[in-house]
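Let's do one together. I've listed all components of the complex below, 230 residues spread over two lines.
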Amino acid sequence: NAGVMQNPRHLVRRRGQEARLRCSPMKGHSHVYWYRQLPEEGLKFMVYLQKENIIDESGMPKERFSAEFPKEGPSILRIQQVVRGDSAAYFCASSPGQGGISVDYGYTFGSGTRLTVV
Amino acid sequence: DQQVKQNSPSLSVQEGRISILNCDYTNSMFDYFLWYKKYPAEGPTFLISISSIKDKNEDGRFTVFLNKSAKHLSLHIVPSQPGDSAVYFCAASKNTGNQFYFGTGTSLTVIP
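Okay, and this is what the predicted structure of the assembly comes out as:
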């Protein structure tokens, strides 16, 4: 039973390029969450998606960032025209379909994608 | 606006002794609290949780204490083992919320 799969593990982009980060939730999980960890900081919520729906994007920067979770395939976090300040670890988490987060076991996190903008 | 704070960035403890990791929060609407453990180059893994209706939850060597009036929680690990060396994140959520609010983490080193 594979966990949350994120790829790539490491991604290097030049300023102005696009970054695409992929997340496949655990089997049976239909809720996906994206978090970002900047250097020396904790994880910050970005967006919560269910299949084909964005439920909460209150943590997403207003520009250049977008996320989707299509009916088929992984969830994608897309960053357009990357800048050095986008360099961070991006973590995806998933939870089962009964909805929302669970205090009993939290989320299941992936291993993250480390984005470096040069 | 850091609503969950872990003021100790690092902690070193001798093997076999107790590790106490602390966490403070500012939002009285938080109902649930969790601790996550993170090894380098891996994602956080869930460790233990507590609901605001309790003041203590125990799971093996790990115990979480919640003091709602002080808006403070702590994680006790006893006895500490070298394999416990990791970064520990405190997280909180609201009953109606969709997200966890994370602290900045405490790096625990257990010295053999």
